[in-house]
Amino acid sequence: MQQMWTDLDSYIDSHLIPEDERLDKVMHNTVEHGLSNHLAVAPNQGMLLQMLIQMNKCKRVLEIGTFAAYSTIWLARALPKDGYLLTIEGRESHAQVAQQNIAEANMNTHIDLKVGFAADVLKSLPSDTPAFDFIFIDADKGSYPEYLELSLNHAHSGTIIVLDNVIRAGDIINPDNQKPSIVGIRQTFEALKAHPKLLSCTALQTVGSKGHDGFAIAIVK
Ligand code: DHB
Ligand code: MG
């Protein structure tokens, strides 16, 4: 099935995803530094993130898990000139590639890349940091429950939270799989279930060039 999913993603992309030199450069530079683009969102998924930001006229975006900043560029593309994007990366070597990619992409919105364990970075933000309108959680899956709670501390009514990789090719319902990353996703579903701070929440399975995975999407009450 994987080949058909990849071919269909190519078909979708060739019709609906405009060529963008900045994104091509990011992908190229990422591979040159020995990182795998497989961990980045697919182009049609990047477009979905962009559209969620546009639909809701978001101005302040938080990304937890920069990796090489491919998704960061998609998020930033959706922002107006007076927008602001904070992206947090835990691994210094990845952050270096990300910083290069962000500089090369020459986006016209303010992008801050902070390096450190995202939970620590979020806890150390100044108390007067305005809430974020859109939050994309895409870092170490074992920490998703903590990232969700900390995100909620930096959200307002109507903030949209998107969590990447919540299906993991079905591993989340395989009881034999007790990897910390999978346990973290299961705990996240438990936390999302009837969360008192959330208005609504769903999860969608996705198939495509990145295999079988999924997004969870929540709106803050
Ligand atoms: C992995 C992480 C991701 O965020 C992703 O989108 C795909 C894969 C991983 O760690 O395997
Ligand atoms: Mg991901």
UniProtKB/TrEMBL annotation:
Q: Which UniProt keywords are present, listed alphabetically? A: Methyltransferase, S-adenosyl-L-methionine, Transferase
What Gene3D superfamilies is this protein classified in?
Answer: Vaccinia Virus protein VP39 (3.40.50.150)
InterPro entries recorded for this chain? Cation-dep_OMT, SAM-dependent_MTases_sf, SAM_O-MeTrfase
Q: Which GO terms describe its biological process?
A: methylation
Q: Quote the SUPFAM superfamilies the UniProt record gives.
A: S-adenosyl-L-methionine-dependent methyltransferases
Q: Which GO terms describe its molecular function?
A: O-methyltransferase activity; S-adenosylmethionine-dependent methyltransferase activity
**Pfam families, A to Z:** Methyltransf_3 (PF01596)
Q: Does the keyword Cell inner membrane apply?
A: no
- Coiled-coil stretches are none
| Protein name, as recorded | O-methyltransferase
